[in-house]
Write a structure and sequence with these properties.
This protein has helices at about 85-90, 130-140, 160-165, 185-195, 210-220, 260; strands spanning about 10-25, 25-30, 45-50, 60, 65-70, 70-80, 100-105, 120-125, 150-155, 170-175, 185, 200-205, 225-230, 245, 255, 265. The protein is α/β, with parallel strands linked by helices. The two termini are about 25 Å apart.
Length: about 270
């Protein structure tokens, strides 16, 4: 288990810049922050507290994008899905209301300059950290046109940010389980089909655990490097509560913790059983 670098962790009592419904049950929220968050890496997350509103414990959210003004980071953008009490209350928060954030936390995606063709797999709200990742790659001069983004969901409403990615030049393949958009079926089926035509240097994935297990399985069978970002219930984000343990393989410990060892893992260490 790695120790949190407290020097890089920032806590800020701040305010909401906007909170907009995209399509039920998905929302986009902008939160004001200081320039210290410019050190955030794609795949990292922050812990959000609603400043006195119940429930009182913080909740984790992937950083969707950094908000910049004249080149300076002035806020963080989050993409979230209303699935429980906390996010239900969060959806009612208005512009200017107070919130408390702690971050950036966790380990982000790793990228090598030798990569030329990358595959990105996002299931539903799993697209949240992938926009930050793609924007970061583009800012470094990486040619996204040679890469492919696979977006999956149960239905059309679960396909998020497709137009934003398309405007960045990345090839996009979409699958929905009900066939309402793109190809009917699972996004991992699209991945399998494309891998028969094109070889990827690496696969990056974020989404539901069953999807991540299948992506990890595909990568393992094809001998492709793969990094997966997984979510977990956690109360602290800094390794104190130990509530975010996940099974591990190829590790000296039987379990790893999403907040400290992740949320991005090498899929070789991910239990796909």
């Amino acid at each position: 288990m790695r120790d949190i670098d407290l020097k890089m962790m920032i806590r800020e009592k701040t305010i909401v810049l906007w909170n907009k419904k995209i399509t039920s049950p998905y929302y986009n929220i902008g939160i004001q922050c200081g320039e210290g968050f410019s050190s955030s890496k794609p795949g990292q997350f922050l812990m959000l507290n609603l400043q006195g509103r119940h429930p009182f414990l913080r909740r984790p959210f992937s950083i969707h994008r950094l908000i910049k003004k004249k080149g300076t980071v002035v806020g963080v953008e989050l993409l979230y899905k209303v699935v429980g009490e906390f996010t239900g209350i969060l959806a009612s928060v208005k512009k200017g209301e107070p919130v408390d954030i702690l971050g950036p936390l966790g380990n982000g995606f790793l990228f090598k300059n030798s990569f030329r063709r990358i595959f990105i797999v996002a299931g539903g709200i799993g697209v949240a950290p992938m926009l930050f990742f793609a924007l970061s790659l583009r800012s470094k001069g990486f040619d996204l046109c040679r890469s492919t983004l696979f977006i999956g969901g149960k239905g059309q409403k679960d396909i998020l940010c497709a137009d934003t990615f398309a405007n960045m030049g990345i090839d996009i393949l979409i699958a929905t389980e009900d066939g309402s958009r793109g190809k009917k079926g699972l996004v991992t089926d699209l991945l399998n089909t494309r891998l028969k035509k094109n070889v990827a240097d690496i696969i990056y994935a974020c989404g539901p655990v069953p999807m991540l297990k299948q992506v990890a399985r595909i990568a393992r069978l094809d001998g492709i490097e793969c990094q997966i970002s997984t979510e977990s219930v956690m109360a602290c984000g800094v390794g104190a509560c130990l509530g975010c343990a996940v099974k591990a393989i190829n590790s000296s410990n039987r379990y790893m913790h999403v907040c400290l060892d992740g949320p991005v893992f090498d899929s070789a260490n991910f239990d796909i059983s």
